[in-house]
Amino acid sequence: MKKLSLLAALSLFVLLSCDRTPGALAPKEYGAWLADPDNGLYKSRKINGITLDARFLPAEYQAYRSYRPEDGVPFDSAVQSYKCGLAFQVTLQAEKSNVTYSDLMYYNVPDQQELSSRMRFLSFNINEFITLTSDSTTYEPVLSNFEGYNALANKISFIVAFVLPEYHCGTFDSVREPLQLTFQDPYWEMGTNHFSFEKKVITNLPKLSR
Is the pLDDT score of 72 beyond 60? Predict the structure, then answer.
């Protein structure tokens, strides 16, 4: 009986240790923590040779990346400007050696006119192919940014931000159902892809120490 109790206690300790979120992390460690799939905020899959990534961007991390002390705005105020939205980054990337997708931006583009049309669509119509679903309601982004095409890395990136009535600047009304980020591929023949993010993970983030 004592052996069973000891084993149960050890198992519980291991589970709690694996699930524990750090209290605070320096910027470099914070970025690495966010990029670790085991922490639930970074999702990745490979389809037809294209790597499709989706990651949640916490308010503190966004504020840190854009913060300029010379602007005279306190860092806490910069964080507040991001805190009430839910932001995600979606990226597509393929190896340059991939015969089909060696140039993602020009894939199936016959001429310059079609390329210009694609650029406009990716810049101004992100709401048509990236959405967020929470508790059976689907939301379009209130802010979106086509970060552009990195030819050297053969990578395309988007950032989207959503405002949900049940999300109150760091807390949800309920954490039972996960968020579902959806990417409906408009050009690269990857179909519709869903990425699930647990709300309890989003509300239990480490602090960013500066």
Answer: yes
